[in-house]
Amino acid sequence: MLVFKNIKEMQAYSRNHRSAGRTIGFVPTMGALHEGHLSLVRQSFRDNDITLVSIFVNPTQFGPDEDFHAYPRNSEGDIQLLSELSVHAVLLPVNEEMYPEGFSLSVQVGETGNRLCGRSRPGHFDGVATVVAKLFNIICPDRAYVGQKDLQQTVVIKKLVREMNFDIDIIVCPVVREVNGLAMSSRNSYLSKEERRAATVLNRALKHGREMILIKEVSDTALIIKELEEIINSEDSARVDYVEIVDAEKLLPLDTIRSPVAICIAVYIGNTRLIDNIILQ
Ligand code: AMP
Questions:
Q1: Ligand 1 pocket check for 61: Cβ under 6 Å
Q2: CB-based contacts of 56, cutoff 8 Å, min separation 6
Q3: Is residue 209 domain-shared with residue 135, that is, in the same domain?
């Protein structure tokens, strides 16, 4: 497996495969890889001749009071995991390679980036869209693989591709969970043993929402949100950032249930902010 730190070399490698008629699947990540990331890599392997992965903790998507410096980094372990999966190449650039002196452009996502996570993370999705646009221009993949775990991010990336005319198919892969239902996340490493247990409340709340909608056929979203917030608040260490019921395509809030609907939640467990969602058809 090749590891590129240099963008031009990565570009040339990718271009050579394209010229030889090979299809390229791309998995952008911030590293500290877990089974969630690896599920995207495996899907890319099934669909493409070549699979490329990037590992880059992107500073522009972190707010000034967020965890950029503390974010888990394990590039040696990540490279080991990816080479075991026979990934063809990894892009592992340093900040100065991605954002050289004088870099000033940015993609403005607008309204879609201001809802849900965007409310407590202003500018986050502009940072995501900017780095993803750069990575897409470097790799020029046929397909890019993203996780439904970050539902709003998938919507933003699809919008970026559509509106900026990237010729790339965005493939959204299902949320990978621990046996206890906790969605896998690099940030789970911040949690103490007790917090890990408390964090299962996110999945419990989502399951309760699914039951209210699909089995009890409750259609008043305010009522559903209230019950979900009560479940989350029943955990001492949990604090709701948001519970929202939105249409799964544009993420606009719904008063009454209609398909496809997404229940999206963000919850602080102690100091760690976790997100999760389910889509119901
Ligand atoms: P990150 O390294 O957190 O930026 O994530 C890189 C990609 O992996 C994103 O497309 C995420 O949505 C995806 N991902 C992260 N966690 C999971 C998970 N538990 N299940 C599926 N995909 C995931």
A1: no
A2: 28, 29, 30, 31, 91, 92, 93, 98, 131, 135
A3: no
| Any ligand 1 atom below 6 A from CB of 187 | no
Atom of ligand 1 nearest to the CA of 153: 12
* pTM of the model as a whole: 0.98
Tell me: do 137 and 245 sit in the same domain. no
- Does residue 156 sit in the same domain as residue 214? no
Domain assignment present for 179? no
Peptide bond preceding 260: is omega within 30 degrees of 0, i.e. cis? yes
Cβ of residue 36 lying under 6 Å from some atom of ligand 1: yes
Of 142, 173, 204, at which residue does a domain stop?
173
Q: How many domains does the chain have?
A: 2
How do the pLDDT tens digits run along the chain, 281 residues long?
A: 999 999 999 999 999 999 999 999 999 999 999 999 999 999 999 999 999 999 999 999 999 999 999 999 999 999 999 999 999 999 999 999 999 999 999 999 999 999 999 999 999 999 999 999 999 999 999 999 999 999 999 999 999 999 999 999 999 999 999 999 999 999 999 999 999 999 999 999 999 999 999 999 999 999 999 999 999 999 999 999 999 999 999 999 999 999 899 999 999 999 999 999 999 99
Q: How far is the CA of 216 from the centre of ligand 1 (A)?
A: 32
Query: Quick check: CB of 186 below 6 Å from ligand 1?
Result: yes
DSSP readout, 198-237?
Answer: HTTHHHHHHHHHHIIIIIS---BHHHHHHHHHHHHHTSTT
Whether 37 sits among the annotated catalytic residues: the reply is yes
Testing ligand 1's pocket by substitution, the residue of 30, 74, 149 carrying the most ligand atoms inside 8 A of its CB is 149
Question: Which domain range does residue 16 map to?
Answer: 2-173
